[in-house]
Design brief:
381 residues; alpha+beta; 4-stranded mixed β-sheet; 4-stranded antiparallel β-sheet; globular
C-alpha cells in the first residue's frame, strides 16, 4: 500500500539522506562498533549536510524545517543503517535540540545552537538515575542555590551520547518537598569543574552508541545554564515526551522493516531439501504474517506522524505508537533470526545484531508497562 504521509519534497530529502549515509556512515559502521561510539567526523559531516539542525531556526545555524516529516524521513533512513545511529542522532537533534530552542533565551541560543547544528557541540540529556528509571518524579540529583550559583550533586546512568557529549541537559531536584513540581533543567558543559564520566557501559545491543554514567560533584552553574522555568522541569519533560516516543516508533518500524526485507531475500536464496526455504508453507505463511504486521503498524505510525505535524498528536496516541511498534519489532526480528537458522545467531550477520539492538526499545522512553498504564488511565481505569 502506498504511503501518503510524505510528499515529493520529503522523498527528495530521503534520496539525499541515503546518498549521504552511503558515503559517510555505511563504510564506517565497523569502526563505530569497534569504538563503541559514533565518530566526530560523522557528526561534523551530518552538520555540514544540515541534518542536525532540522529543529533549529536558520538564525542560529539550523535549517528550521518546521515540518516533523523531515525528521521522520531522516530517522527512518538512519535506522535502516543500524538502530544505534538513529538513537544517537535522535538524542542530539530530535530530543535535546528542541529543549534548547524552546526553553532558552536569545543569549543561550546564540551560545549553543550554532554548535549543535554544526556537530561541534554534541548533546545528551540526563534524566535516568541508578536508583530509578521511568519514575522521573523521584530523581535524586540535586541543585542547591548558593548565592548567584547553583551547585549540582548526583549521578545519572544509561545516558546515550554520554561519553562524548559536550553539553548535557540535566534534570535536577531544586525543591525537595515538591516531588514532580520541584525539578529544574540545567545545561552543563562537559568542561565544567566537577563533571565527570564513568565507563562506556557494556550493553547487550546498540554497541555503536557511547552510553555512559555521568557524575556531578559540586558542579557549579549559574542562572545562565538554567533551561526553562525554575521547578518547571517535569512539565517541560512531559511536553517533549510525545515527540521522543514518536521518534522511537518511527525508528522501530523502519529498523524492523529493513531487516525483514533482507530476511525475505535470504529465504529466496537459502536452499534446503532442494528448494528455497521461503517456499516452504510454514515459512511462506510466517513471512506473510510478518509483512502484514509491519505494514499495519507502519500505517498507524504514519498517521501519528501526520497528526504530530498538524500538532494534533496526543500523549496517549504517542504511547500507543511507542509500545506497539516496539512489540511488533521484537516479534518480527525474533522470527527473522529463526528464519536465518544458525547463521541468525552469529554476530557477523545484521539480523543477529538487529535482534539485540531492538530489545531496549521496550524499556527506554518509558517502559512498555508505563505506556500501557498511560493508555489504561485514558480509558478511565
Amino acid at each position: 500500500m502506498r504511503r501518503s504521509v510524505y510528499g515529493e519534497e520529503h522523498e527528495a530529502f530521503r534520496d539525499s539522506v541515503r546518498r549521504f549515509l552511503e558515503r559517510s556512515a555505511v563504510p564506517n559502521v565497523g569502526k563505530y562498533l569497534e569504538d563503541h561510539a559514533i565518530s566526530r567526523e560523522f557528526w561534523l559531516a551530518a552538520g555540514e549536510q544540515g541534518l542536525l539542525g532540522l529543529e533549529i531556526p536558520e538564525a542560529y545555524g539550523g535549517v528550521g524545517a518546521g515540518d516533523y516529516r523531515f525528521n521522520a524521513v531522516l530517522g527512518e533512513e538512519l535506522a535502516k543503517v543500524n538502530a544505534a545511529l538513529n538513537s544517537c542522532w535522535g538524542i542530539h537533534a530530535e530530543i535535546a535540540a528542541p529543549y534548547l530552542v524552546a526553553l532558552t533565551n536569545d543569549e543561550q541560543r546564540k551560545r549553543w545552537l550554532p554548535g549543535v547544528a554544526s556537530g561541534e557541540i554534541l548533546c545528551a540529556i540526563a534524566m535516568t538515575e541508578p536508583s530509578g528509571g521511568s519514575d522521573l518524579a523521584a530523581l535524586k540529583t540535586t541543585a542547591v542555590r548558593d548565592g548567584d550559583s547553583w551547585v549540582i550533586n548526583g549521578s545519572k546512568t544509561f545516558i546515550t551520547n554520554g561519553y562524548s557529549a559536550d553539553l548535557v541537559i540535566v534534570a535536577t531536584r531544586t525543591s525537595s518537598e515538591k516531588r514532580a513540581h520541584g525539578i529544574t533543567l540545567f545545561a552543563v558543559e562537559s568542561t565544567t569543574s566537577g563533571f565527570s564520566r564513568g565507563r562506556k557501559l557494556d550493553k547487550v545491543g546498540q554497541e555503536e552508541s557511547d552510553t555512559a554514567e555521568l557524575f556531578f560533584d559540586d558542579v557549579r552553574v549559574t542562572e545562565g545554564e538554567m533551561i526553562g522555568d525554575l521547578d518547571g522541569g517535569f512539565i517541560h519533560m512531559m511536553q517533549n515526551l510525545p515527540q521522543e516516543r514518536l521518534s522511537c516508533a518511527v525508528s522501530n518500524v523502519a529498523h524492523a522493516k529493513q531487516i525483514l526485507n533482507e530476511t525475505l531475500a535470504y529465504t529466496k536464496e537459502r536452499q534446503a531439501f532442494g528448494k528455497p526455504i521461503g517456499s516452504f508453507q510454514h515459512n511462506k505463511f510466517l513471512l506473510a504474517q510478518l509483512f502484514t504486521q509491519i505494514e499495519v503498524i507502519e500505517a498507524y505510525v504514519d498517521k501519528c506522524v501526520d497528526a504530530y505535524t498538524r500538532q494534533e498528536l496526543t500523549s496517549v496516541d504517542a504511547a500507543k505508537a511507542k509500545w506497539w511498534s516496539s512489540q511488533v519489532q521484537s516479534e518480527v526480528l525474533d522470527h527473522c533470526v529463526q528464519l536465518y537458522g544458525g547463521y541468525g545467531y552469529m554476530n557477523e550477520y545484521r539480523v543477529a545484531r538487529a535482534w539485540r539492538d531492538a530489545r531496549v526499545t521496550k524499556i527506554w522512553a518509558g517502559s512498555n508497562e508505563i505506556m500501557r498504564e498511560l493508555i489504561g488511565r485514558d480509558l478511565g481505569l
